[in-house]
Amino acid sequence: MDHHSEDSLTIVEVEGEIDVYTAPRLRELLIDLVNKGNFHLLVNMEKVDFLDSTGLGVLVGGLKRVRAHDGSLELVCTQERILKIFRITGLTKVFGIYASVDEAKEAHGRDK
Hints:
Blueprint: E1 2-6, E2 9-18, H1 23-35, E3 40-51, H2 53-67, E4 72-76, H3 80-88, E5 97-98, H4 101-111
Parallel strand pairs: 2-3, 3-4, 4-5
Antiparallel strand pairs: 1-2
């Protein structure tokens, strides 16, 4: 898990599995970023191949944290089975989900 900033957007790179074992690391990173004033987050999940309910909870929790500061948490997701989880849970209505980092950055620039 790594992150870097581009303009006002902080991009969090995640790969592998986001599950009960790895989600706490993501939670801590998101909390730390928000505590340091990063309120516009983009979680790049292009290389994530598994997501469970713990991971979903971490993402929703992160969204609540940034929204408390009028921020945003958006996702880049290209894996169909993970997109299906977001559709089934109704979270496609909650998160901005993009097919690429460039697409998300472009949308973020328009929303400023």
